[in-house]
Amino acid sequence: MRTYVGRQQAISVQDFAELALGTPVELWLGVEGETEEERAAREDAARDILTDNPNLPDDLVRIAAQVIEENPDLFDVVPLVRPARRRRTARKGAAA
Q1: What string of pLDDT tens digits covers the 96 residues of the chain?
Q2: 31 DSSP assignment
């Protein structure tokens, strides 16, 4: 099953999010090891984008809901069976 956002195919979850947002995911989530200056610059850029596109969060949720509706098998979850617990019996007596 293929998923498209606009005319672009989303191959991975990251592709989907980036195409839906129109920006790299790292802009919103950050990257490991970024400095305080880098984080502040990233957050400023994100604020500017949200100011210019106030409907962006709603659009992303709408697109995500549409993909979920069209691909319900994405959430086919199979419960894992837990192994039965074994009870330990207390041993009485002296160690040899």
Answers
A1: 677 767 777 777 777 777 777 788 788 888 899 999 999 999 999 899 889 988 888 887 887 788 778 877 777 767 777 777 766 666 666 665
A2: -
As given in the structure block, the two tokens for residue 69 are 């509706």
* C-beta separation of 11 from 81 below 8 A: no
Tokens of 86: 């074994």
3-state helix, strand, coil in the chain (%, to 5): 50, 5, 40
SS3 of the chain: the string is CCEEECCEEECCHHHHHHHHHCCCHHHHHCCCCCCHHHHHHHHHHHHHHHHHCCCHHHHHHHHHHHHHHHCHHHHCCCCCCCCCCCCCCCCCCCCC
Alpha-carbon gap, residue 64 to 78, rounded angstroms: 22
